[in-house]
Amino acid sequence: MAWLDYLAAAREAGIEGVSIGVGGVTLTRGMDATRLLSDAAATGRLLNELAEHEIDLVELNCTGNPLHPDPEIRSRHRKAIESSLELASQIGVRRVTTTSGCPGTGGGAPTWVVWPIFWDGFYERQWEETIACWTQLEAKARDRGVRICIELQPGMMVYNVATFERLLDATGEAIAVNLDPSHLFYQGMDPIAIAKHLGNRIGFVHAKDTTIDAAVVSLNGVLDPSPLEAPGRAWTYRAVGEGHPLEWWARFLGTVRSNGYDGPVCIEHEDPFVHGSEALQVNANALRAALAMPESA
């Protein structure tokens, strides 16, 4: 869907704000933060298009791996985060969402360690690298009045409450969580309990659901490396309400709000069964229905 068509569809669905991918692996066509910083006319057109459709820009997304073992990828993703922070500051956006990243063993692919006993201190060395990187990025964000919202996602150093709090303790107040229930469901976590625990450390919220195939999990667990659209997966991303009832979403939204978060809830759609403008409408209708329930108050 073209950008202007997307804005028109979003407005028709009653959506009041959007997030734009500006770097890393989440790049909306023509919206690269580094390019926009050097092209005032392109930035102006973007802001005018949003204003014409009466839609706010609530967040910039720059998901990537600033700790990648490949120097070229690491440098590119880190520069993208830095450019996103600068762009956000210049255009009055107060959130940049990303992931913590994950180092590797030296060349090749990142190495996600969740069973560190046989790794001879490698996990702690990864944390030293993680903290060194994010201490600098947090300082840049704080200087610009922008909050970095880290998504808790498997495959990254920060993927649950304990790892987020370890990073937070070593960095500063410009680090927050992007709370996305979909990644928490299949790890066996409780997004409502996490919302209560984190309180005002929640900087942004994604709305995305997950279905879990109990029969597959009973044999293979939840660590499923098959493609996201493949049949027979242990879990699958779904539109809001397709994995958990709207009553659950009402309780989740109410808990997030009552524990200190007063920002937007952003639809992140990766459901392989619903596409295009229909996806916007399905998610928007489900969220609207959940917000109307007493549990969300």
What does this structure look like?
The chain has helices at about 5-10, 35-40, 40-50, 70-90, 120-145, 160-170, 180-185, 190-200, 215-220, 245-260, 275-290, and strands at about 15-25, 25, 55-60, 95-100, 145-150, 175-180, 200-205, 210, 235-240, 265. Strand 4 (about 95-100), helix 5 (about 120-145) and strand 5 form a beta-alpha-beta unit. Strands 2-1-3-4-5-6-7-10 form an 8-stranded mixed beta sheet. It has a two-stranded antiparallel sheet with strand order 8-9. With about 300 residues, the chain is an alpha/beta fold. It is built from 11 helices and 10 strands. The chain folds into 2 domains: about 1-175, TIM Barrel, CATH 3.20.20.150; about 180-195 and about 205-295, no CATH class.
Which SSEs are present, and which pair or pack?
Blueprint lengths: L2 H10 L4 E7 L2 E2 L5 H6 L1 H13 L3 E6 L9 H21 L3 E4 L23 H23 L2 E5 L9 H10 L4 E5 L1 H5 L5 H8 L3 E6 L1 E4 L1 H7 L14 E4 L7 H13 L6 E3 L8 H16 L6
Parallel strand pairs: 1-3, 3-4, 4-5, 5-6, 6-7, 7-10
Antiparallel strand pairs: 1-2, 8-9
Helix pairs in contact: 4-5, 8-10, 10-11
Summarize it.
With 297 residues, the protein is of the alpha/beta class.
Strand order of the largest sheet: 2-1-3-4-5-6-7-10
Number of domains: 2
Q: Tally of extended strands?
A: 10
* Radius of gyration, whole Å: 19 Å
CATH topology of the largest domain: TIM Barrel
Distance, first to last CA: 35 Å
State the share of residues found in helices, binned by percent.
Answer: 40-55%
CATH H-level name of the largest domain... which superfamily?
A: Divalent-metal-dependent TIM barrel enzymes
Instruction: Name the CATH class of the largest domain.
Output: Alpha Beta
Net shape: globular
Structural class: alpha/beta
Average pLDDT confidence is 95
